[in-house]
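Researcher: Going back to the complex we discussed earlier. I've cleaned up the inputs and rechecked each line, so this should be the final set. Can you rerun the prediction on the complete assembly and write out the structure?
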Amino acid sequence: MTIAQALDALAARLGDRLGRSPSDLALHGANEAHFPAMPPDAVAYPQDTAEVAAIVGICAAHGCPVVAWGAGTSLEGHALPVKGGVTVDFSRMNRLIEVRPEDMLAVVQPGLTREALNTDLRATGLFFPVDPGANASLGGMAATRASGTTAVRYGTMRDNVLALEVVLADGRVIRTGSAARKSSSGYDLTGLFVGSEGTLGLITELTLRLQGQPEAVASAVCGFAEMAAAVETVIATIQSGIPMARIEFLDRAATAAVNAYSQAGLPEQPHLLVEFHGSDAAVAEQSARFGEIAADLGGEDFRWATRPEERNALWKMRHNAYYACLALRPGARAIITDVCVPISALAAAVEETAADIAASSIEGPILGHVGDGNFHAILLVDPGSASDHAEAARLAGRMAERALRLGGTVTGEHGIGMGKIPYMPAEHGAAWEVMGSLKAALDPQGILNPGKVVPQ
Amino acid sequence: MTIAQALDALAARLGDRLGRSPSDLALHGANEAHFPAMPPDAVAYPQDTAEVAAIVGICAAHGCPVVAWGAGTSLEGHALPVKGGVTVDFSRMNRLIEVRPEDMLAVVQPGLTREALNTDLRATGLFFPVDPGANASLGGMAATRASGTTAVRYGTMRDNVLALEVVLADGRVIRTGSAARKSSSGYDLTGLFVGSEGTLGLITELTLRLQGQPEAVASAVCGFAEMAAAVETVIATIQSGIPMARIEFLDRAATAAVNAYSQAGLPEQPHLLVEFHGSDAAVAEQSARFGEIAADLGGEDFRWATRPEERNALWKMRHNAYYACLALRPGARAIITDVCVPISALAAAVEETAADIAASSIEGPILGHVGDGNFHAILLVDPGSASDHAEAARLAGRMAERALRLGGTVTGEHGIGMGKIPYMPAEHGAAWEVMGSLKAALDPQGILNPGKVVPQ
Ligand SMILES: Cc1cc2nc3c(=O)[nH]c(=O)nc-3n(C[C@H](O)[C@H](O)[C@H](O)COP(=O)(O)OP(=O)(O)OC[C@H]3O[C@@H](n4cnc5c(N)ncnc54)[C@H](O)[C@@H]3O)c2cc1C
Ligand SMILES: Cc1cc2nc3c(=O)[nH]c(=O)nc-3n(C[C@H](O)[C@H](O)[C@H](O)COP(=O)(O)OP(=O)(O)OC[C@H]3O[C@@H](n4cnc5c(N)ncnc54)[C@H](O)[C@@H]3O)c2cc1C
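Model: Rerun complete. Updated structure for the full complex:
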């Protein structure tokens, strides 16, 4: 067996940093979403780039699959080893290598989490803005092209990764990009690896853009009697050019969920959660302009949070909203949707989705990063119920088709993994084959996270 | 001859839209910089995507090189047909297809120029910010990953192209990206084609992000006794987080050049040219903060331009600065450098470069988009002088090495073309081979702009 030979060679190289205990395998065969567990044959814990290169080299020699693992928080079964092989867990490569305040950048190992990075940055006056709800690893975030509540202002991982070190499928180590803010020096390899879900190479170092802590910050929660009014407020706000730092939507069901889970104490109606960053004067001006738009469209019951503790509580509540939704139905798992549409189509996309879910047999709170046109329905299923699964799949399929019909994408931020692969032909047409050609060029044996992203 | 067969088939398909007159060939064999002329065998003028696909299909069948041509303003001989073949001139595909104000985007054909687009957008309250000095085509700008004076605020073509239609080397037509503001749906093909200099596919349609016209705009010119003080002002300004819309540098020689060419009437000393965009209050606040930083570091003789005519004159002067530098030495041609370094290294990069040029036998005004760490020395050579060429090549080589030593790139915005290819191994190492593998995957015959970007 080729995998068995690879494991022997890896064990010789890594010693007890090749995990084979049942608990280790089970941990790395699980996922945050609803996919069946699927353990790898072993888990490698490299300590540095050279070791990653050695692992991949050994696996390449034996045709053994290699699947990267960051924090395991991805939502589409991205890191499930569908053909077995070795999972490379980056948790021991979690150092902040360097902060360069004068260039507003940080160099990190891939296993560092976003929260740990921001804790380390506290004294510098800088922060890293990209914030998926989970405390994900920066390598995993790059690999899924993650974003979060602040993408409307600061962009996604596409915009915030300047340079990478990558181990290729044959064990070669390359560097892409540089610490310069822009370049026209050839193909954008950094951009190619960002979002490639571990199928083109393993990221072993990242150079990240940082942002200055704003002088002033203000957050607010604002309720609406109708979902349509909340969505219209988002569209009008984005079109007005107010540089929102955050603008998030919770529908009535999601609001009920965060009330129950985080004692948010919000009236049970749709809400927008917003934040403004800038100088004192700029924040005051932006808040006032947003307040006018929202009030015009029926926003009510404004609650401002200017103290850091209040703001932290607000965004912690938002970041836990996924768990809050799951808790609505004890024992449930979630089929998570992640469409993103042009802002002009947001109202249609959200409202048709809500109507669909209302008419269905399952629950599905809606929430999202609406300033980017991105929202999720958290479709709750009883793991043992085939009819729940079928109904969720039907709703998710209709959402995906709707997003494509409206000129959008089936995944705004979570990525493809196992869950979104069926939609790739409809979304990309012949461009999906082109992705396959790129994969074949960089990983001809197909050992890197097989079964993901490209046509099989 | 394979090229001859391709030309017969193309003539049958295109009729008089296949140009073969000596003047047509000469025009498309010339370049803005110092490279020897090199005419193609024919020039095709397609009218739509289907025709581009047919042209490429015919060329693929006969192994005939295909070189895209936008406005021909690139500065490194990008579009020179070094292996002959057919130049595809996009000037008849220059329509603004659609403006979607509510999504702040425009869909354009590749031959539309940036100035024509902005003229068409005037009534919408929107504009397209990327502004290389020349009136380049949007297809060419995407292909070179161009930027300009506003990249410090609005980004480069990387950031402003949302979606593309591309004809591949085998004539297949694909669409990349979408009108949604973000996506995690697979490899970033849009980003791969942006900056690929016509070597991976021909761009036949672009979806571009637009920006709202700012409520208020203010521009200023500010002189400094010493170059070092001007550069320190840039670094301090960027690090302070003031959201500059533009911050441009002209050294003493470049200032003299724009005085002579554009009657700028500036004191003969180094200058910064700046602009602020925002609400009235924001512009006032930003201007004041910048004014303080500049004054602290020795900025003097501030001149504000708030009236649109004054501002237009200022930026027209800046956009013509390249021609102004050329005019310093009648009959001269330019070897243009385009380094970009991390902002912390800007002072070292500019000052060492200036000292090098001062100690050399040729002139080389320095100017650039310093807010990004990007600057150019326009090295003036007598086209007939081998010693001038050798001296310019030596200086350019030292600049490139210095940029790499300081962690930057040899080309911040112009691209590789013929001029920067020799530096690719030093800049990219093994990553350059990876670019070659991608090229081989998408263009196995090597018919698209052969001799460019990748290892030969
Ligand atoms: C409560 C909750 C809220 C969430 N909210 C958001 C959100 O708002 N926005 C968002 O974008 N996502 C969100 N997510 C999803 C998830 O957090 C992101 O997908 C995140 O980027 C995954 O990072 P990870 O470190 O957990 O990666 P993993 O799950 O470990 O891996 C994800 C993928 O990346 C690959 N990978 C990991 N590390 C590397 C590496 N070093 N090199 C190459 N490939 C690698 C893996 O092989 C896999 O394909 C949420 C998840 C949860 C549980
Ligand atoms: C005075 C002056 C100032 C300048 N200032 C700047 C500046 O500030 N910033 C900057 O970035 N550049 C600047 N440039 C350089 C130039 O304007 C840019 O490189 C511009 O992007 C080139 O566009 P073009 O339409 O002229 O392309 P071309 O010169 O026609 O072509 C450039 C490259 O793109 C390819 N190409 C063209 N169209 C397509 C297409 N549709 N599909 C695929 N490939 C295509 C060509 O094959 C070629 O490789 C300046 C040039 C001049 C003369």
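Model: Worth noting: The longest helix of chain B spans residues 386-405.
Researcher: Good, that matches what I expected from the previous run.
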